[in-house]
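Input (structure):
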């Protein structure tokens, strides 16, 4: 498979927006892509952390954020990728691009202002 995106600046707008809006860490991105690739399987936090070589505490936070944003479904202590027609294509293109251009995508994640997510979260409506 040949990826058609050479730099983060040439990624499709929906992929860049997905990263900027929802992805706060490489661990979170890798958890999303891991569960997306195994969308019919449920996984617990410890197993995902072990498979992705991440601390359990970091993975727990990443998975909780992804579930809050509707990318994952949480069932007790297990997580499952939540298929959504409005996001699946962007996640698939993101997986393709990340497989070939890891460095530019990680730079995009690390270049995000840390306070941006906290500010945008202040405007989310919650059910609680």
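Output (sequence):
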């Amino acid at each position: 498979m040949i990826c058609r995106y050479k730099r983060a600046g040439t990624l499709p707008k929906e992929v860049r927006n997905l990263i900027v809006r929802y992805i706060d860490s490489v661990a979170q991105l890798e958890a999303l892509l891991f569960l997306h690739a195994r969308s019919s399987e449920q996984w617990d936090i410890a197993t995902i952390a072990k498979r992705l070589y991440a601390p359990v505490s970091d993975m727990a936070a990443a998975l909780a954020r992804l579930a809050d944003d509707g990318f994952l479904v949480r069932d007790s202590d297990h997580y499952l990728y939540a298929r959504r027609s409005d996001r699946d294509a962007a996640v698939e293109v993101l997986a393709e691009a990340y497989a070939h251009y890891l460095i530019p995508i990680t730079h995009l994640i690390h270049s995000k202002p840390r306070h941006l997510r906290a500010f945008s979260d202040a405007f989310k409506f919650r059910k609680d």
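Notes: Strands lie at 43-44, 72-75, 78-81. Helices lie at 13-22, 26-37, 45-51, 56-68, 88-100, 102-110, 114-121.
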